[in-house]
Specification:
Radius of gyration: 23 Å
Number of strands: 2
Helix content: 55-70%
Order of helices and strands: HHHHEE
Distance between the termini: 63 Å
Strand order of the largest sheet: 1-2
Number of domains: 1
């Protein structure tokens, strides 16, 4: 934080600095640490999935990437929105602009992840219709028979 980010229309620099220091969103908060750890894990596994050869480790990475991404989506979105709320009145500078670009990139990645999970869920439902013996729910199983859909 520098004095170059001061915006006289909003409030004094010292008051804003104190507000940021008091903020529950500092680097020491559990939500910030959780978000950073989840995003670091997502970055590493995403690069492994994208650049790695087709291997069982990469397949397990896809599952871990999906699980951690699904669990971390809402807490990270909460952290980003709270962080934006605290810093929304800062004068536009290269640091603030970089934050907005990073938030846009994170939003695009998160949205594509949600779309992929929805597509995978839809395709799993189609696979269950084509292969009823693989279906995990939606029917009853009797000894020696495949699942029969209830109508």
């Amino acid at each position: 934080m520098s004095r170059t980010n001061f915006n006289s229309k909003n409030e004094s620099f010292e008051h804003r600095l104190d507000a940021v220091k008091r903020s529950r969103l500092g680097w020491q908060s559990w939500l910030a640490l959780f978000s950073m750890a989840a995003l670091l894990f997502e970055t590493i596994t995403g690069l492994v999935i994208t650049l790695g050869p087709f291997h069982p480790f990469v397949q397990w990475s896809v599952l871990a990437h999906t699980a951690v991404g699904s669990l971390a989506l809402l807490p990270t979105a909460w952290y980003c929105s709270s962080h934006w709320w605290d810093y929304r009145r800062w004068t536009l500078s290269h640091v603030v602009l970089l934050g907005y670009v990073a938030l846009l990139g994170l939003t695009v990645c998160s949205a594509s992840g949600v779309v992929y999970v929805a597509m995978a869920d839809e395709r799993a439902g189609e696979a269950g219709a084509r292969f009823p013996h693989l279906r995990l729910s939606g029917g009853t199983r009797e000894a020696g028979q495949t699942l029969v859909q209830e109508t």
